[in-house]
Specification:
The chain has about 350 residues and is α/β, with parallel strands linked by helices. About 30% of the residues lie in helices and about 15% in strands. The protein has eight helices and twelve strands. Its EC number is 2.5.1.47.
């Protein structure tokens, strides 16, 4: 994303952000027999581990250029975790302090990463988010409590979608040689899908942009506040415009697919077991939607790019993972006729191949 110095290596953290790879999924969701190609854009290979590294750098870069961010100032925002992690990493690398407000249900792994970079966290009870317009009220509180800090405003800062217009979209266009037909993304702050979608549609007006949102059973309400949710997958239909993130451009979006939290978690698990990729539940939701699109006959021969925003390592403590924690003892291997076997090893003297090698 950023030009290196005259050395043969980068000399600042931001130079490592971007140019993440696309991986064609060959086994996931019965890929062997599907007439549609799914490419996963692996955003957790950014230096702080998610696509929000791009957002963080876009915001900091613009604020520094405009003179809005002073040396040693504190960065502050409301975040579901990944933007906070990206901002905390860059703040540490560039001499700023950072403080972030998060839902109390944010995964301990994300909170721990923010602390690892030296930033502070304030946890807010999830019940405070249930009423319409609650996010705006919480943001007002964040700003009032931190009058001297630089509020990064990831939901409304135009530097957020701009960085995706300048980097994420062009990378997809370049790496697919213009063959991308459908972009699938979640909606957190709206920056990724809006900026990336705008760029790709500027190059290929017929391209379709699809977002995934939580299904009705995965949206908490005052009557059912303890519903299992997916961080970074937000409702965009049946929501009044003033309550949507300012960076979300609904005009870019062609379709919305709903996904239950359980489906997102199961899809993320299937990705790990079919492709060897560990992805967070929001990426599971994105790939659930991508698989639905790939199964449609009208999409035969098309190429879908799905945004894999972060790694499953950030959610190992969350519901839906516990069942995989019990270790499964593997049978001891035994060599027979030059091949390994899973049959039990016979008792008796050890064969000669147990001795020193060579």
């Amino acid at each position: 994303m950023t030009a290196w110095s005259d050395n043969a290596w980068p000399d600042h953290l931001a130079a490592l952000i971007g140019n993440t790879p696309l991986l064609e999924l060959k086994r996931f969701g019965g890929r062997q027999t599907s007439p549609c190609r799914i490419l996963a854009k692996i955003e957790y290979l950014n230096p702080a581990g998610s696509i929000k590294d791009r957002t963080a750098w876009g915001i900091i870069r613009a604020a520094e250029a405009d003179g809005h961010l002073r040396p040693g100032q504190t960065l502050v925002d409301l975040t579901s975790g990944n933007t906070g992690i990206g901002l905390a990493a860059l703040a540490a690398a560039r001499g700023y302090r950072a403080k972030f407000y998060l839902r109390a249900s944010t995964s301990p792994e994300k909170i721990g990463l923010i602390h690892q970079y030296g930033a502070r966290t304030i946890l807010i009870d999830d019940a405070e988010f249930l009423q319409p317009g609650a996010v705006d009220l919480i943001i007002d509180r964040v700003r009032q409590e931190n009058p001297e800090a630089f509020y990064t405003n990831q939901r409304g800062n135009p530097a957020n979608p701009r960085i995706h217009f300048e980097t994420t979209g062009p990378e997809i266009w370049r790496d697919t040689a213009g063959a991308v037909d459908i972009l699938v993304s979640a909606v957190g702050t709206g920056g990724t899908v809006s900026g990336t979608g705008r760029y790709l549609k500027s190059q290929k007006p017929g391209l379709k942009v699809v977002v995934v949102e939580p299904a009705a059973g995965s949206v908490p309400t005052p009557d059912h506040p303890d519903v299992d949710t997916v961080e970074g997958v937000h409702k965009v239909t049946e929501v009044e415009a003033q309550h949507l993130p300012g960076n979300y451009d609904s005009g870019v979006v062609d379709a919305v697919i709903a996904c239950e939290t359980a489906q997102a978690r199961l899809t993320a698990r299937a990705l790990a077991r079919d492709e060897g990729l560990t992805a967070g539940p929001s990426s599971g939701a994105v790939l659930f939607a991508a698989a639905q699109l790939a199964a449609r006959q009208e999409n035969a021969g098309r190429t879908i790019v799905a945004i894999v925003a972060d790694s499953g390592e950030r959610y190992l403590s969350q519901p839906g993972v516990e069942g995989d924690r019990t270790p499964h003892p593997a049978p001891a291997p035994q060599r027979r006729s030059g091949a390994w076997s899973s049959q039990p090893i016979r008792t008796g003297p050890k064969p000669s191949y147990y001795g020193p090698l060579g």
